Request: fold
Amino acid sequence: MIAAQERQTPSLPQRGPERSTKPRRKPAKRLAQVSRLKACSLLLLGFLLCTTLVYCQAQIALVGFRLQALEKSIDRLRAENQLLETNLESLVAPDRLEAIAKKQLGMVYPSSAAGEIVLPPANQVEAAKQEENKGRRGWLEELLQFLAAHLGQRGA
Reply:
């Protein structure tokens, strides 16, 4: 048998960490980039501040318009309230109430005999009481009717 011999390859020389092949920037270029970045940042900040200022002014104008509309509404409601109060005063004036009492309700001033009480006839009083109680039944009547109805059903 023939044994295979190992081949040995010559090893490569080892190098240190690889360095980038990019050239280093000069400090002046770096300083110019930083100053440009600062200028852009300040410009952006100024734009944002101006935009905020314009927005705030627009909101102030909007609130002013709403305030004017509400003041007009308040003035209109005050005038309407004054008109209603005037109407109320005329409606509850004693002369007007007296006229309504005489014309619509048929009321009259009492006779010259002070302290005289005029009662309606007795049959009118009874008729008025019956009209009031018409349709109303006492609890005892309802109980009796209920019992009669239920006991009548069982017995039948």
Summary: DSSP finds four helices and no strands in the chain. The mean pLDDT is 80. Residues 29 and 37 are 12 Å apart (CA to CA). The two ends are 129 Å apart (CA to CA).
